[in-house]
Structure formats: structure tokens, C-alpha cells
Amino acid sequence: MMDLQNVIIPLLLSYTTVFTVLHGQKVVTDLKVTGYQGHDVTLLCQYINGNTEDKILQMQWTWQNESSKYEIMVFSMDHGLSLHDTFLKDRVSFRKSSPPIYEASIIIKDVKMSDQGVYSCAYTTFPSGSHTGQTTLTVLEDTTQSPSDLQDVTYSDVTILKPGKANRSTSQLSF
């Protein structure tokens, strides 16, 4: 029974992947991503080429919220990268250093509350046209404590065990 499951499950997953590639979505993104203020966040964008005749001409990232929309960056196969002058200009980059042909995920450094919104990753291909995926980024306040917020702790009656050494008890240790 176990051997049959080991064969059937991978076949079903392969079928699902092939079906998606041939008939479904061409741009893979995460629908929702949560980032934490002051930390880095990665937004996934991958192009799945189901049509071998398609040629990628360019890809672009945009950001929008209820009141604004900005082009963040455009990568053209002929002209290279154009990083637009936006609030993200100094904090955004592609995750991989190679040209973002099929994998165009981005990293946003030092995420801010104002970075929340809908990010769109769009590929322009020939002959099949444009393909877009969207990710909604939610930014939460980082609630972890920084080292300066931590208090000194004093432990008493601690036993320290060291491999290969005699065990010693101490009456008080301070860290």
C-alpha cells in the first residue's frame, strides 16, 4: 500500500503542474505576504513558460494602494534594468543577481508600514502577450525585543555540567 502511494502522489502532483503550465496561470506569486517593520521581505514572481514559442520581452513590478500607483522597476531583455525613482528605489532589488528571465522575485529591505499594498509582477511576451501575478503585502510592527530592551538576569543555585569534566555547583552566576 505504501509503495502505491509513493507512486500515485508524485504522478498527481506532476499532472497538476503540467496542467497548470499548459492551461493555467503563467506567473506564480504568493497571494499574501506578511512583512515586519524594519526587516527584509521577499515577494515571489516566477514565469512558467507553457508555450515554447513565447519570448520574454520584458518584466516589470508595480505597487499600488487605495490612492496611488507606481512603477517600481522594469527589466527589458534589450535595454536592461530601469529602477524608477520611487520610495522603494534604494531598498528594492531582484533576489537573484542574474537577469530576471523566469525568476524575478524581489527583496524589499527595511520594510516600512508605507510599503503595504498590492505588488504586481507582469511579463510581456511574444506572441502570447502580457501575464500578471499579484501579491498583497501586509506590514506589521515588529514586536520582538532589541538587546537594549532586555534586562540583566541573575541565576542562583545553578549546576553547570561540562562533558568530560567534574560537575561543579555554584551558588550564584550573573550573566
From TrEMBL:
Ranges of residues in domain Ig-like: 10-138
Superkingdom of source: Eukaryota
InterPro entries: Ig-like_dom, Ig_sub, Ig_V-set, Nectin/Nectin-like
Chief localisation class: other
Cellular component terms per the entry's GO annotation: adherens junction; plasma membrane
Residues annotated as signal peptide: 1-24
A GO biological process held by the record: homophilic cell adhesion via plasma membrane adhesion molecules
Key words, A-Z: Cell adhesion, Cell junction, Cell membrane, Disulfide bond, Glycoprotein, Membrane, Repeat, Signal, Transmembrane, Transmembrane helix
Compartments, record wording: Cell junction, Adherens junction; Cell membrane
Membrane topology: Single-pass type I membrane protein
Its biological purpose: Cell adhesion molecule that promotes cell-cell contacts and plays important roles in the development of the nervous system. Acts by forming homophilic or heterophilic trans-dimers.
Quaternary structure and interacting proteins, as annotated: Cis- and trans-homodimer. Can form trans-heterodimers.
Family: Belongs to the nectin family.
Protein known as: Nectin-1-like
Lineage of origin: Eukaryota, Metazoa, Chordata, Craniata, Vertebrata
UniProt gene name: LOC122147926
